[in-house]
Amino acid sequence: MATSTHPHNENATVKGARFRGEETKPSFKTTELVVYVLAVIGVLIASYAVGDGSANNGADYFAADKAWWYITLLTIGYMISRGLAKAGSRSSDTDPRTH
């Protein structure tokens, strides 16, 4: 039979206990998503409004391919910002298949 060499005090408080918070907020609850959606809508409206080119010999200053390129860049930026937001968070998931 093994005996413990450390004294046990049942009335002692645990110091240094950390609150284990949940993972970061879902994306639909963040302002990042709102800003991203507004920026995409802004790019599409600007492309539509500027892109007619009727005043300048039919030239299209802000063509659809350029608008979609900006939307792609916005999407990449949004994905990176969400990845950085989740990078240091801990998950409280206890499913062994996800570790």
TrEMBL record:
Keywords: Membrane, Transmembrane, Transmembrane helix. It comes from Actinoplanes aureus. Residues 1-12 have a biased composition (Polar residues). It comes from the Bacteria. The keyword Transmembrane helix applies. This is Uncharacterized protein. The chain crosses the membrane at residues 33-51, 67-85. Residues 1-21 are annotated as: Disordered.
